[in-house]
Amino acid sequence: MAGFLFSWAASSPSILFTSSKFCFVGIYLIRPLKKGMVFIYHIVKPGETLSVIARNYRRSLSQLFAANPSITNPNLIFPGQQILIPGLPNPDTIPYTIIVSRGKRNLTLLKNGAVQKVYPIAVGKMLTQTPIGEFVIVNREPNPGGPYGVMWLSLSKSGYGIHGTNNPASIGQFVSKGCIRMYNENVLELARIVPNGTRVLIQP
């Protein structure tokens, strides 16, 4: 397994299998480029289209076509196919992992598997629940304003993110439209620590 970099995910049940040539980690296929370097591929899930994948990762179709020259028709992709996501670091090269608990309404920041911080959050209400699953931070926008407060961290699911708030009294409640809401000072601190590509695990 020379050439692969594993942190928290090395002991995670999301690893499906490994070999000397590649390994599956959750929804990602990690390929070694050379020692110490890896690429990340999204593994197509049933029902996904290239347009959906592009929106989820905030990439354009032209960017995905350029990174995946074997794809000539966006309507001809299939479950299990590997889609290279350009310009996004592989989560397993990043020491940080974010775990969100909807039930406890908290966000835990891990570094190399050790708890660094636990933040109170607000999550989605009953009709607009925060999605469960494994995502990554794909980009960010400082000072989006309004209900998003002072920082927006996009998740790899279109329309969802981790953000600040203009209503601090809502933290700790089930009130959002599915996003993860934090105190402004907390989301700024989190954004200073974690880079794009950081894995985010949302649990019930």
TrEMBL record:
A biological-process GO annotation: regulation of cell shape
Sequence ranges assigned to domain LysM in this UniProt record: 40-85
Keyword check for Protease: no
Pfam families: LysM, YkuD
InterPro entries tied to this protein: LD-transpeptidase, LD_TPept_cat_dom, LysM, LysM_dom_sf, Transpep_catalytic_dom
Keyword annotations: Cell shape, Cell wall biogenesis/degradation, Glycosyltransferase, Hydrolase, Peptidoglycan synthesis, Transferase
Pathway noted in the entry: Cell wall biogenesis; peptidoglycan biosynthesis
SUPFAM superfamilies (UniProt xref): L,D-transpeptidase catalytic domain-like, LysM domain
All copies of domain L,D-TPase catalytic, residue ranges: 96-203
Active site: H163, C179
GO cellular component entries: extracellular region
GO molecular function terms listed in the Swiss-Prot or TrEMBL record: glycosyltransferase activity; peptidoglycan L,D-transpeptidase activity
Database matches in SMART domains: LysM
Domain of life assignment: Bacteria
Family in the record: Belongs to the YkuD family.
Record-given protein name: LysM domain-containing protein
Protein source organism: Cytobacillus oceanisediminis
